[in-house]
Design goal:
The chain has about 280 residues and is mainly alpha-helical. It is about 80% helix and about 0% strand. The protein is built from 12 helices and no strands. The two termini are about 15 Å apart.
Length: about 280
């Protein structure tokens, strides 16, 4: 494994861990400000942190840089809201399984060898075993879960593209700023209702740092170092880390099938990493 790929792997693992810890923290804010409120605060926090660091100059953006940035902003604003709403309608298990179809599709589409294909399929099986989704008749909830999956796939592809077209963290900074502007009405409604304060706001701010700022930056860096197919397979660690974050931070005890799913996903990722040890460095 080259140094660039090893660094990309470490970056992806840190991003996933931060994301799922943030999700567990953010869950505490649902009762007071709702999923839309948490997403709004996350975008505000991400923009407030990334804009001063990246300092993008939108006046100098070309159309080739603007259109994927605007699409990424749409993805930021839609991905988590659709997932949270799907969880509320059809349950965590089915919603997470549906969302993982996005990065799994990216992994399958980019497969070049039988090992790549095996890793992607095994990771998908592991996630299914981990959550064991039951039947659901809420087609709106299922549709929202699939929308979250499409957003996650688009997130991977757009970050890969923008990593080549804009330097540093300018792309996620500009995208989060646009997304934050779109969520201003949500924040205004919460303020008028007297709900945007206290512990709920603090939990949402923490979720913004852990689930938006760190992952947005880390994923962009990782996608400059590793192929999108490898990135898609490695995204299967998110459900694993979500289960562990739930155990540690929310007191959710894991069932036998959840531990079995974790073992399958970890094995699939270990095989994916091993298969890329002699892969040429991406340019």
């Amino acid at each position: 494994m080259g140094k660039a790929t090893a660094a990309g792997l470490a970056t992806m693992a840190a991003s996933a861990a931060s994301n799922q810890v943030g999700a567990a923290v953010g869950a505490h804010a649902f009762a007071s400000i709702g999923p839309a409120g948490v997403v709004a605060v996350r975008q505000f926090v991400a923009a407030a942190v990334l804009l001063p660091v990246a300092r993008p100059d939108p006046r100098r953006f070309t159309w080739a840089q603007w259109w994927p940035t605007l699409l990424l902003a749409l993805v930021f604003g839609t991905m988590n809201l659709s997932l949270y709403t799907a969880i509320d309608r059809v349950g965590l298990g089915l919603a997470v399984t549906l969302e993982f179809l996005g990065p799994l599709a990216v992994a399958l589409a980019g497969s070049r060898t039988r090992t790549d294909l095996l890793c992607a399929v095994a990771a998908g099986v592991g996630v299914y075993v981990l959550v064991l989704p039951g039947p659901a008749r809420d087609y709106a909830g299922i549709g929202l879960g699939l929308l979250a999956a499409a957003c996650w796939a688009a997130y991977i592809l757009l970050n890969r593209l923008l990593g080549k077209r804009l330097p540093g963290l300018q792309a996620p900074a500009a995208a989060t700023a646009v997304s934050a502007l779109a969520y201003l009405p949500v924040a205004a409604a919460l303020i008028v209702a007297g709900r945007l304060h206290g512990p709920g706001l603090l939990y949402a701010v923490a979720a913004g740092v852990l689930s938006s700022v760190i992952p947005y930056a880390a994923d962009l860096i990782a996608l400059r170092r590793v192929p999108t197919q490898f990135f898609g397979v490695m995204m299967s660690i998110h459900p694993v880390l979500a289960a562990l974050a739930g155990l540690v931070l929310l007191g959710e005890v894991l069932a036998v099938h959840e531990w079995a799913g974790i073992a399958i996903v970890v094995s699939a990722n270990a095989l994916a990493v091993a298969s890329h040890r002699r892969t040429p460095e991406p340019r």
